[in-house]
């Protein structure tokens, strides 16, 4: 009896749902930590007297770290386990967030944000694989979308807390809060998220049978007496396997899709607080607008997740990207009163987040267990590395004298290009 087939065809147990819930919480932490610099940016710019171009570079720093972390730790997660990788990344995040609160200038803050990004990128690659391997066949896409919906959930909860912290303390308190939450998640993962059965079956580490049976017991599934014969392993592993044979086109195409759409996504989430503050609103009000974008993102992610139970996630993701391009342009030309900005930001968050979580589900279903975390790491890593350009490019466009409408239109082209490649290249590769 192959336990992977048991999980695939049987009902989801409470323990499986609890694993998914932990992964949702980890991605919520990811969502808050990524946007912590956005919540803090008005205070940083005022205290250190830096212009938009310099601030744009600071806003991009953890995205560079996330790029490196996704690729590096994605490979580690396929070699040494999803659980070990998540715990390691949580330690890195905790150190990086606390270190950012001690920064005294742009250089030191940038260094700490790169370090934090290493942990954030690696954790996302590992949690995507862990969620896919904990879920059954019927709910896999839904669970991955639910996991990814943790990102806007972290934005909403964390943003609301950040707004309160900014009223009582300075910007450093935001990073200190993130460090404490990351530390609290370490025992939660240690006790509640065992290594995935898919990984144990693929790698066969010491005591694999005992570990598999222990997890099966917690899931309420029948245990096994012996491990079934291992499946033949491909000659190439990791990046070599992804850039050759049947994985080459999906890897390159999905990397571009993620790159294009995430460029649009990060333009919005990184610049909203500063743009709203520059319109004359208080930093706490600017953070509130970003919270509304996150509320919209949470609703968009949840709706897309529910729709995956009835419709193909591929076409749902394409539709979300097209709507994303339209709403980002709308944001660029919207009136500059707080209610309208909040409503528009919610619409942008709804579409852009739905597109992002849809990509995660597509990636998880496009690659086998042996390279699933590596594929997620490469797609997200290279995509986010390129997306690190988004805040910087927008900052340079603003510095060159272009208005918000022109900049938003230019940045919306990322979602448009991503959707076209998804339909013209990825769809063809999946059907051949």
Folded structure, characterized:
The model has no long low-confidence stretch (mean pLDDT 85). The protein has a single domain (3-231, 238-431), classed as MFS general substrate transporter like domains (Growth Hormone, Chain: A, Up-down Bundle). It is 82% helix and 0% strand. It has 432 residues and is an all-alpha fold. The protein contains 18 helices and no strands. It has helices at residues 3-9, 14-48, 52-80, 82-101, 106-134, 140-148, 150-168, 172-192, 197-203, 208-219, 238-242, 248-278, 283-307, 313-333, 338-366, 372-387, 389-399, 404-431. Helix 2 packs antiparallel against helix 5 and helix 2 crosses helix 7 (150-168).
Instruction: Please identify which CATH superfamily we are dealing with.
Output: MFS general substrate transporter like domains
What about the largest sheet?
none
CATH top level class name: Mainly Alpha
Overall geometry: globular
> What's the structural domain tally?
1
Number of helical regions: 18
| Chain-averaged pLDDT | 85
H/E topology pattern: HHHHHHHHHHHHHHHHHH
In short:
By secondary structure, the chain is mainly alpha-helical. Helix content is 82%, strand content 0%.
Write the layout of secondary structure elements.
Elements: H1 3-9, H2 14-48, H3 52-80, H4 82-101, H5 106-134, H6 140-148, H7 150-168, H8 172-192, H9 197-203, H10 208-219, H11 238-242, H12 248-278, H13 283-307, H14 313-333, H15 338-366, H16 372-387, H17 389-399, H18 404-431
Helix pairs in contact: 2-3, 2-5, 2-6, 2-7, 2-8, 2-12, 2-13, 3-4, 3-5, 3-16, 3-17, 4-5, 4-8, 5-6, 5-16, 6-13, 6-15, 7-13, 12-13, 12-15, 12-16, 12-17, 12-18, 13-15, 14-15, 14-18, 15-16, 17-18
């Amino acid at each position: 009896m192959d336990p992977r087939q048991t999980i695939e065809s049987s009902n989801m147990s409470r323990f499986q749902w609890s694993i998914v819930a932990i992964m949702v919480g980890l991605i919520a932490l990811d969502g808050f930590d990524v946007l912590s610099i956005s919540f803090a940016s008005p205070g940083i710019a005022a205290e250190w007297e830096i212009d938009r171009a310099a601030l744009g570079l600071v806003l991009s720093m953890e995205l560079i770290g996330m790029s490196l972390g996704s690729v590096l730790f994605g490979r580690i997660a396929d070699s040494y386990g999803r659980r070990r990788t998540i715990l390691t990344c949580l330690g890195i995040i905790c150190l990086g967030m606390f270190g950012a609160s001690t920064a005294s200038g742009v250089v030191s803050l940038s260094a700490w944000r790169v370090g934090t990004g290493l942990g954030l990128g690696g954790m996302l690659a590992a949690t995507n694989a862990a969620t896919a391997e904990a879920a059954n066949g019927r709910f896999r896409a839904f669970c991955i979308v639910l996991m990814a919906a943790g990102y806007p959930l972290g934005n909403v909860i964390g943003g609301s807390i950040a707004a309160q912290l900014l009223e009582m303390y300075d910007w450093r308190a935001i990073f200190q809060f993130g460090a404490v939450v990351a530390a609290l998640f370490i025992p939660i993962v240690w006790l509640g998220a065992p290594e995935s059965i898919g990984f144990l079956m693929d790698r066969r580490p010491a005591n694999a049978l005992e570990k598999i049976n222990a997890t099966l017991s917690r899931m309420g599934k029948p245990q096994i007496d012996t491990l079934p014969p291992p499946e033949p392993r491909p000659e190439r592993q990791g990046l070599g396997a992804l850039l050759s044979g049947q994985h080459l086109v999906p890897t390159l195409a999905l990397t571009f899709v993620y790159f294009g759409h995430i460029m649009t996504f990060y333009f919005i989430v990184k610049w909203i607080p500063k743009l709203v503050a520059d319109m004359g609103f208080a930093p706490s009000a600017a953070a509130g607008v970003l919270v509304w974008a996150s509320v919209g993102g949470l609703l968009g992610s949840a709706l897309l997740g529910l729709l995956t139970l009835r419709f193909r996630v591929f076409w749902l993701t394409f539709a979300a990207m097209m709507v994303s391009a339209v709403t980002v342009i709308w944001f660029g030309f919207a009136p500059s009163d707080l209610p309208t900005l909040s409503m528009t930001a919610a619409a942008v968050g709804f579409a852009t987040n739905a597109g992002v979580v849809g990509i995660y589900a597509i990636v998880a279903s496009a690659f086998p267990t042996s390279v699933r975390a590596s594929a997620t790491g490469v797609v997200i890593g290279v995509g986010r590395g390129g997306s690190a350009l988004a805040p910087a490019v927008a900052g340079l466009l603003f510095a060159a004298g272009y208005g918000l409408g022109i900049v938003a239109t230019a940045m919306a082209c990322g979602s448009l290009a991503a959707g076209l490649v998804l339909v013209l290249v990825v769809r063809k590769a999946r059907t051949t």
